[in-house]
Amino acid sequence: xxxxEQTVEITLEQIADYEFKVRFDDTAIPDLITDETSPxxxxxxxxxxxxxxxxxxxxxxxxxxxxxxxxxxxxGTIGAKAKATLARNEHGRWRxxxxxxxxxxxxxxxxxxxxxxxxxxxxxxxxxxxxxRQGISVDVSVRDGDGNTxxxxxxx
Length: 156
Fold this sequence. Notes:
alpha+beta, 2 domains, 3-stranded antiparallel beta sheet, GMP Synthetase, Chain A, domain 3, two-stranded antiparallel sheet, globular
């Protein structure tokens, strides 16, 4: 693989019902338990919608920190609040239609150097937010217990 491309791999294993263990392959990161909200699931962990909102908010927070430090700032702690809005589409299926993120700096604006430049560029550093904004191509395959690939009409 070249320097122009990287991959991130995870493995999911069903525990029970809609609860899954997420393993972050080739890392020392502890496993994460995910679950759907009730009544479908048992609220045993964050569901995928919450994980997506968390990923966007986390990425924006880290990107803001990176941009601040790029201009030699030593900011205090950064906080974020994310809100994902779900609505039914024309087929009655739930979809995330909007994510809003409110980032909170600990410092007063006048204490941060080059804040105008920081604010103009930090979002561009955020891999997750910019990917979500563009749309991400997702290929899907399904295999049976024998390893045979099953036809998925709407895949990819």
